Amino acid sequence: MPTYGFPSAMRRLILELSKLPTIGEKTAMRLAYHLIKEDERDAADLAMAILEARKKIVFCRICFGLADEEVCPLCSDRSRDKSIICVVEKPADVIAIERTNGFHGGYHVLHGLWSPLKGVRPEETKINELINRVQKSRERGSKETRIEEIILATSTTVEGDATAMYLAKNVTELGVTVSRIAQGMPKGGELEYADQGTLSHAISGRLKI
Amino acid sequence: MPTYGFPSAMRRLILELSKLPTIGEKTAMRLAYHLIKEDERDAADLAMAILEARKKIVFCRICFGLADEEVCPLCSDRSRDKSIICVVEKPADVIAIERTNGFHGGYHVLHGLWSPLKGVRPEETKINELINRVQKSRERGSKETRIEEIILATSTTVEGDATAMYLAKNVTELGVTVSRIAQGMPKGGELEYADQGTLSHAISGRLKI
Question: Which domain range does residue B158 map to?
Answer without folding.
Answer: 77-187
